[in-house]
Write a structure and sequence with these properties.
Blueprint lengths: L7 H13 L2 H9 L1 H8 L3 H26 L4 H19 L5 H17 L2 H12 L4 H30 L9 H29 L4 H7 L6 H8 L2 H19 L3 H7 L5 H28 L2 H20 L8 H21 L14 H12 L2 H15 L3 H29 L1 H5 L1
Helix pairs in contact: 1-7, 1-8, 1-9, 2-3, 2-8, 3-9, 4-6, 4-7, 4-17, 4-18, 5-6, 5-7, 5-9, 7-8, 7-17, 8-9, 8-14, 8-16, 12-16, 12-17, 12-18, 12-19, 13-14, 14-15, 14-16, 15-16, 15-19, 18-19
């Protein structure tokens, strides 16, 4: 499909939708993790198990939602996903019991993955065309980061406005009341974005016919599974996604180790969200000008060395500058890998019309960190409270960054531009 058939606002709407759909299950707990734990009466393991329920439902949703994206236009699936996710926000804002919360996360695993994930990736690949995959996915992830940062900042503002006492002295009931308004505002934004997608994220019928299939056959699925790029992307995405999940603990690190209050720790989470758009846009431009797979390798290397800064135990509450530098290094590596791993699908010779099917198969294993990363981090943090538990979490990040870097290097060896031309 010609890139001109998808205008700039198509990508803009995709960016808005791509982050809005994950605000309730992921962005708010990332920015307000200490507040979420207190307001819902959870410990780290229990929150991790909510993510596990999400990941378990998502596992099947990836598999069956992928082919769905190859049969229907992205606009319809994405809008439906946003509206259904917003409905979950109405339940979330009542601060349900732990059992209901786990059911809610399972519901979100369906709405955000089965109806949404593969259509978003396919739409971005269509927009990028054969020459701008780095920009397409760099702008998508960077833009999603900016949207997340703006929503996180808005949430922080709403929380600060409605908290009725000094933050450090606020009771759980007061924090819960303020956080309720954050949830309502976020839910309204998600619904509105769904409406914008439905009304404006359109392509002509000819373009839709070019990127959809009437029927997905078993031989087509087998052909996708025979591609080495698919198997390498499974490893790459699994390792990169563990890194992304671990960024959830930075706001908690700020509270446990740096001794920040709830608002200050939430500001650390928001700072991370503002790093993401800068990294996504920059790495996308660099990748298209040189070679995407090279930058994917470099990104894993940055993530590896950044994780060692935390794992070594060098960062304490008296080293504020080192703390923010280290957060910046880790975030740069993690967000860069996240921006690029789908951008290499074009060089890996994965057919455009089967993008949804390929993404579904890759995601089936690649996103299993949704199941195991949360409980693993929760166990490491609760088993060794304080700085020691956080060091163990970052050793985990170092290990996965190393393995992901090896897989990315092998992908580069197989699918470098020089070899593709030959």
């Amino acid at each position: 499909m010609n890139q001109n058939k998808a205008p700039w606002y198509f990508l803009l709407l995709l960016i808005l939708a791509g982050e809005a759909v994950f605000v309730l299950p992921f962005v708010l707990p990332r920015v307000f993790r200490p507040t979420v734990l207190d307001a819902f009466g959870l410990d780290n393991v229990q929150l991790g198990l909510c993510y596990s329920v999400y990941g378990t439902v998502a596992l099947l949703s990836y598999l069956f939602g992928g082919p769905l994206a190859d049969k229907f236009a992205p606009r319809k699936l994405i809008a439906a996903a946003l509206w259904m996710t917003a409905l979950g926000g109405l339940v979330y804002g009542t601060f349900p019991s732990y059992t209901v919360l786990k059911i809610l996360y399972g519901y979100w695993g369906f709405t955000t993955i089965f109806l949404f994930w593969s259509p978003m990736i396919k739409a971005a690949r269509v927009w990028g065309g054969p020459t701008s995959q780095g920009r397409a996915f760099g702008f998508l992830d960077g833009g999603r980061g900016l949207v997340g940062a703006l929503i996180g900042t808005l949430g922080l503002l709403v929380f600060s406005l409605f908290i009725t006492a000094e933050v450090a002295e606020a009771t759980i009931a007061e924090s819960r009341e303020a956080f309720k308004y954050v949830i309502w505002v976020s839910t309204g934004i998600i619904f509105l974005v769904g409406l914008l997608v439905w009304l404006f994220m359109k392509t002509d019928h000819v373009a839709e016919d070019e990127i959809t299939l009437k029927k997905i056959t078993l031989p087509q699925i087998q052909a996708v599974l025979r591609l080495p790029s698919v198997w390498l992307l499974i490893i790459i995405i699994l390792c990169a996604y563990v890194g992304y999940k671990i960024t959830d603990v930075f706001s908690l690190y700020a509270q446990d180790v740096m001794l920040y209050d709830q608002v200050q720790s939430a500001q650390v989470g928001t700072f991370l969200l503002f790093v993401r758009p800068f990294v996504g846009v920059l790495i996308g431009i660099l990748a298209d000008r040189t070679e995407t797979t090279v930058w994917l390798v470099i990104s894993f290397v940055i993530s590896f060395f950044g994780s060692l800064l935390f794992a070594a135990g060098w960062i304490s509450n008296s080293s504020t500058v080192l703390f923010f530098i280290s957060v910046l290094v880790v975030a740069t590596g993690v967000y860069a890998t996240r921006s690029l791993y789908y951008a290499v699908m074009e060089s890996g010779r994965i057919p455009l019309t089967l993008t949804g099917t390929a993404v579904g198969l890759i995601s089936l294993v690649g996103y299993t960190p949704d199941i195991f990363a949360g409980p693993a981090m929760g166990y490491l943090l609760d088993a060794s409270p304080g700085a020691t538990g956080h060091q163990h979490v970052f050793w985990m990040l170092a290990l996965f960054s190393f393995v992901g870097g090896i897989a990315a290097w092998y992908y580069f060896r197989l699918y470098s531009k020089k070899k593709t031309i030959n």
